[in-house]
UniProtKB/TrEMBL annotation:
The lineage of its organism: Bacteria, Bacillati, Bacillota, Bacilli, Bacillales. GO terms for molecular function: 5'-3' DNA exonuclease activity; 5'-3' RNA exonuclease activity. Residues 129-191 form the Polymerase/histidinol phosphatase N-terminal domain. InterPro entries: PHP_domain, Pol/His_phosphatase_N, Pol/histidinol_Pase-like. PANTHER family: EXONUCLEASE, POLYMERASE_HISTIDINOL PHOSPHATASE N-TERMINAL DOMAIN-CONTAINING PROTEIN. SMART domains: POLIIIAc. This is Phosphoesterase. NCBIfam families: CehA_McbA_metalo. It comes from the Bacteria. Gene3D superfamilies: Metal-dependent hydrolases.
Length: 447
């Protein structure tokens, strides 16, 4: 499982600066490779003879200066969506770039600048975050900066800003946080809530009177590029009472602490899957303010994404490459099939040999219940015993290829006894891997 940083490469350059170059601008060129997600640049200056060289810092791309910090910083980063203050985020197009220096003060003997450029390349990895949060831009008490800081402290990668019927949060979020801020809005009506993710201004007017109005609002959001989520659809207080046939992409099966409303939504989702729908399940904390139970990234949504950007994360969710855990520390589950050829969300095509199913897991504990579920319902349940019982743990975390016979999908849940709640609750789940029924019996003996 890949839950770390993307592949990186590093280039180091040195440039000697003579006294005669004082007060001049100097370029140290470098080539931007293909498929770079972020660059981090640091530099240090070594004075020869008398100390006190002052060399300013900036950067240009192939078209323009992308940032300048003078002598205020020892480095900077530029990503596709965020950057160090003073630098412009955006596309990192391949081609000729250069680190810029202003030789403001150079000793008589000169100085030498050493520049390190680290390239973080696009590539699949698991990211974790929260897809349902609130702030002072609606009825929450957290500022956007506080939300971002909490998520950074938790080690999370992204947060969706989903204030009730408001979009001002999408124009005011901090640009210098390392957390990806996904624009959003919780379309909040008297008969149900829906998150609209991925665009800063999905609606001109949230007010609705009847189903036709709801349909029109969702049409507008879709036209503007929003991803549509049915939020806590079986909640006791604000369930989805509009037509379930409305346009939507995903369903929030896990909202806040695990409860009966989530149980009902989980059962509804299973019915949708068993009926042939490929509906992606996500989670969100719905946090508004400090609370002993409702906390950021509880639950935590894990997404396998090709880039650490809002677009990359939403694309990963759209592919169903999603898991959910009760907290950022896990347990984390990665469901694969056929030696990793397919992962959660993927469809094994008709006639394709399926291979064995396997879960790579982190953060499981003795006593955890591992459940394999298909379109036929619960297929297998095994309680993990001691940590050293490797053979039993492996048996719980895999199914042979023969288990696919007559099955259109498999997914996995982990249930755990929580002392705080004094009951067994859901600790993690995966989205399904799908298989086209009628694909034949060509999977026997694989894996």
């Amino acid at each position: 499982m890949n839950t770390g940083l993307p592949h990186t490469s590093v280039a180091v350059f040195t440039r000697r600066i003579s006294r005669e170059e004082q007060s001049s601008y100097i370029e140290v060129p470098f080539d931007m490779p293909e498929r770079v997600e972020e660059i981090q640049v640091t530099y240090r200056v070594e004075s020869f003879g008398a100390p006190g060289a002052v060399i300013d810092l900036g950067v240009r791309d192939s078209r323009r200066v992308r940032g300048w910090s003078g002598g205020a910083r020892a480095g900077f980063r530029i990503g596709r969506e965020t950057a160090t203050p003073g630098y412009i985020p955006g596309d990192l197009d391949p081609g000729s770039w250069a680190v810029l220096h202003n030789a403001y003060k150079v000793p008589q003997e000169g100085c030498e600048v050493t520049i390190t450029v680290e390239f973080r390349h696009l590539g699949g990895r698991w990211l974790r975050g929260d897809l349902h949060t609130h702030s002072v831009h609606s009825d929450g008490t957290y500022t956007l900066e506080e939300n971002a800081a909490i998520m950074e402290e938790l080690g999370c990668d992204f947060i969706a800003m989903t204030d009730h019927n408001a979009v001002s949060q999408n124009l005011a979020y901090p640009r210098n946080t390392k957390v990806v801020m996904i624009p959003g809005m919780e379309f909040t009506t008297n008969f149900g809530h829906s998150n609209l993710l991925g665009v800063a201004d999905p609606l001109d007017d949230f007010r609705v009177r009847h189903q036709a109005d709801v349909n029109e609002r969702l049409r507008m959001a879709r036209e503007r590029g929003a991803r549509i989520v049915l939020n806590h659809p079986h909640c006791d207080y604000c369930p989805w009472e509009w037509d379930f046939a409305v346009d939507h992409d995903w369903v929030e099966v896990w909202n806040g602490p695990w409860s009966a409303r989530n149980e009902r939504t989980l059962q509804w989702w299973q019915e949708q899957l068993a009926g042939g729908r490929r509906l992606v399940a996500i989670g969100g904390s719905d946090t508004h303010r400090p609370d002993p139970m409702v906390k950021h990234a509880m639950p935590c949504t894990w997404v396998y994404a090709e880039s650490r950007t809002a677009e990359g994360i939403l694309d990963g969710i759209g592919k169903g490459h999603v898991g959910i855990s009760f907290a950022p520390e896990g347990p984390f589950l990665e469901l694969t099939c056929g030696e990793g050829a397919y992962r959660a969300g993927d469809l094994v095509p008709a006639g394709q040999s399926t291979g064995a199913l396997r879960v790579e897991a982190a953060g499981l504990l003795p006593g955890d219940l591992v459940r394999w579920i298909s379109n036929q319902g619960l297929e297998k349940e095994l309680c993990l015993e001691g940590e050293g019982d490797l053979e039993q743990s492996q048996a719980a975390l895999q199914l042979p290829s023969e288990a696919w016979e007559g099955r259109s999908f498999y997914r996995v849940e982990v249930w755990r006894s929580f002392k705080e709640a004094e009951r067994v609750l859901l600790a993690a789940l995966t989205n399904p891997i799908y298989r086209t029924l009628g694909a034949g019996r060509g999977n026997e003996g694989d894996g």
